[in-house]
UniProtKB/TrEMBL annotation:
Protein name according to UniProt: histidine kinase
Biological source species: Corallococcus sicarius
GO molecular function annotations of the record: phosphorelay sensor kinase activity
Family annotation (InterPro entries): CheY-like_superfamily, GAF, GAF-like_dom_sf, HATPase_C_sf, HATPase_dom, His_kinase_dom, HisK_dim/P_dom, Sig_transdc_His_kin-like_C
Catalytic activity: ATP + protein L-histidine = ADP + protein N-phospho-L-histidine
EC number: 2.7.13.3
Keyword vocabulary terms for this entry: Kinase, Phosphoprotein, Transferase
Domain Histidine kinase: 275-490
UniProt domain Response regulatory: residue ranges: 500-610
Coiled coil segments of this chain: none
């Protein structure tokens, strides 16, 4: 039976909308303005369920229609709006449905909430207090059941809940929050509010919530999530109002953070100025006195003592180091610290740096390296700077005589350098901050331990620029271990590197002939008649082999052997003797090739010695450490 012809005019005057469905829930009739009143689009002959979100509320509505009984409740539409539905069954089967929207446009509530948020911002610029005041204002002033604020952490990577209106309530929904899910992800990506459904919250069938992005002028700082009262929904106007309120909250949060960062920067600046003035003054005072003393002695015609000059030089070096640290920190801040990268064998670098410390300080050092080089692509000077800083710290913060261990290890894809001391250690609360600029641990006294607090910051930055990582493991009172991981060159890249041969021959023509033969074979060759000079030139990178003439004069041989024994080497360097017989000082298994040189004989001897050395070393998978040297 169809309704009278004038019923449409009467229905248009009512806020509710009317629709008739059959027992199969197909639409038999709907009033003309149904979609305009409810926001629900229904087509005659279509199924009612196609326009509704599935859930227990829709199941209850469906059962009431099919069983022919009255019903009243709220359902959520596919457009994520809540509507109230009343069911009146008909004698012929099916039912009349009275549908009305449940959203509100309460500008008074919005204005009151905004005023309270503004008052909270005026009273405090602390992030926590501003967020707490905002969620409380929303719940008190508007038809909002619950409100939450999530803010990005300082690294802008993760969201953390900063405030919630009913944390002590008994009906708080599950706290699990995954920003990668809709509608949170869409709200953050589009910087527009998005609607979602919180299942099992509010009434028994779920509730609508709005995820509103907190958009500051330069970035999105987080999310404001608003849960509606039971049976309520969000209108378009309401979302616009809460977006405006969220923007105000975002600006307040951003201002609070900027103020906190400015205050922290001022504290760091004041502390730095205090430390820097002390550190710069410390070497200046004795330097000034030393120079004044030397000036008086020179004016009086007296000789200047070498000890005074050396003391002044040490103070100048200390000042230069402080200034260089400040310059490096400035270059890092401006992104102007450049790297000059080249293939570098880590074991050789460690051996050289530790050898310098072993001669400078009366302290036992141990060095452990794998037998077969660990290569990286890096800036030698900058990586040496990092290693020197780690060793200086280990020496400075360790008691006299305590050993310092340096290890070179090979991991699956990294070259690892560890520096371990048995000093004062670093408190657990400070370990996460030791790589920050100007930071010094609490157990470090400026009076007993100098420094600007820049060394670890610079070291961490240099390692990071190499694509590596610098980590710390420490226990207060028991020492620290710093671990530096650097990307290791692949085996293919290492095989392409030229092998290095040092040729020492007193006869320039023979030396040149050997060099030509070896270079034609792809070797990198050093040829200097003075053995000590040759070794010093080659010390930057490991030498794979030394070709040594047995007919060199005794002074030349003595100079070479003395220098060879004292220069730092990560691993033993094999020697190929060139001559008719082995000299008395050579071991029986030392390689020997004829001289004058013939290309085939020289190359055979070189390849034989290098192949024998390669067989002596264990495979990388079997070796962690095979060499240890101790002062």
């Amino acid at each position: 039976m169809l309704p009278p012809n004038d019923v449409e005019d009467v229905l248009s005057c009512l806020p509710q909308a009317l629709v008739r469905v059959g027992p199969d829930l197909r639409v038999q009739w709907r009033e003309e303005g149904f979609a305009a009143k409810t926001g629900v689009v229904l087509a005659e002959g279509g199924t009612l369920l196609d326009a509704l979100e599935h859930g227990r509320s829709v199941d209850a509505l469906e059962r009431a229609i099919r069983e022919g009984r009255t019903h009243s409740g709220h359902v959520i539409t596919r457009a994520l709006r809540q509507v109230r539905v009343q069911v009146k069954p008909t004698p012929s089967g099916g039912a009349w449905l009275v549908v009305e929207p449940s959203g509100v446009d309460d500008e008074g509530a919005f204005s009151q909430a905004v005023r309270e948020i503004a008052r909270a911002v005026g009273e405090s610029l602390e992030v926590d207090r501003v967020c707490s005041a905002a969620v409380v204002s929303l719940v008190r002033c508007a038809q909002v059941r619950r409100a939450e604020v999530f803010l990005y952490e300082e690294d802008d990577a993760t969201l953390r809940r900063m405030a919630v209106s009913d944390l002590e309530g008994h009906d708080v929904p599950i706290d699990a929050f995954d920003p990668s899910e809709d509608p949170y992800r869409q709200a953050l990506a589009l910087r527009q509010p998005q609607l979602g459904i919180q299942r099992g919250y509010g009434d028994a069938v779920g509730s609508v919530f709005a995820a509103v992005p907190l958009c500051a002028p330069r970035r999105t700082v987080g999310l404001l999530i608003i849960y509606k009262e039971q049976g309520a929904s969000f209108s378009v106007r309401e979302l616009e109002m809460w977006s405006a309120a969220a923007s105000q909250l975002a600006v307040a949060v951003e201002n609070a953070r900027l103020l906190r960062e400015a205050q922290a920067a001022l504290r760091v600046r004041e502390e730095f100025m205090s430390i820097a003035s002390h550190e710069l003054k410390t070497p200046l005072t004795p330097l000034k006195l030393g120079l004044y003393s030397m000036e008086r002695r020179i004016a009086a015609g007296q000789p200047v003592e070498l000890a005074s000059v050396l003391k002044s030089k040490r103070q100048v070096d200390r000042l230069a180091g402080l200034v260089e640290d400040l310059l490096d920190a400035s270059r890092l801040e401006l992104g102007r610290l450049a790297l000059d990268s080249a293939p570098l064998e880590v074991g050789q670098l460690v051996a050289e740096v530790v050898d310098h410390f072993r001669h400078a300080f009366e302290r036992p050092f141990t060095v452990e390296v794998p037998p077969d080089g660990v290569w990286v692509l890096g800036d030698r000077d900058r990586l040496e700077q990092v290693l020197v800083n780690l060793l200086e710290n280990a020496h400075k913060y360790s008691p006299a005589g305590a050993p310092i261990a340096v290890r070179v290890l090979r991991t699956a894809d990294a070259a690892r350098i560890q520096v371990q001391d048995h000093g004062i250690g670093i408190p657990g609360a400070d370990q996460a901050q030791v790589f920050q600029r100007f930071y010094r641990a609490r157990n470090v006294s400026h009076r007993n331990f100098g420094g600007l607090g820049l060394g670890l910051f610079i070291s961490h930055s240099i390692v990071k620029m190499h694509g590596g990582a610098l980590a710390l493991r420490s226990l207060e009172g028991e020492g620290s271990t710093f671990t530096m991981d650097l990307p290791r060159m692949s085996a293919h890249e290492v095989r392409r590197l030229p092998r290095r041969v040092l040729v020492l021959d007193e006869d320039r023509s023979q030396e040149a002939a050997a060099a030509r033969t070896l270079r034609a074979e792809g070797f990198e060759v050093f040829t200097v008649q003075n053995g000590a000079e040759a070794l010093r030139k080659a010390t930057h990178l490991p030498v794979d082999l030394i070709v040594l003439s047995t007919s060199a004069t005794q002074p030349q041989m003595a100079s070479f052997l003395e220098t060879f024994a004292t220069l730092p080497r990560a691993r033993p360097v094999p020697i190929l003797l060139a001559g008719d017989s082995r000299p008395w000082w050579a071991q029986e298994n030392t390689g020997l090739c004829p001289r004058p040189y013939r290309a085939d004989e020289l190359l055979a001897g070189v390849h034989h010695v290098l192949g024998r050395e390669r067989r002596r070393t264990v495979t990388p998978a079997e070796s962690e450490v095979v060499l240890a040297t101790q002062a």
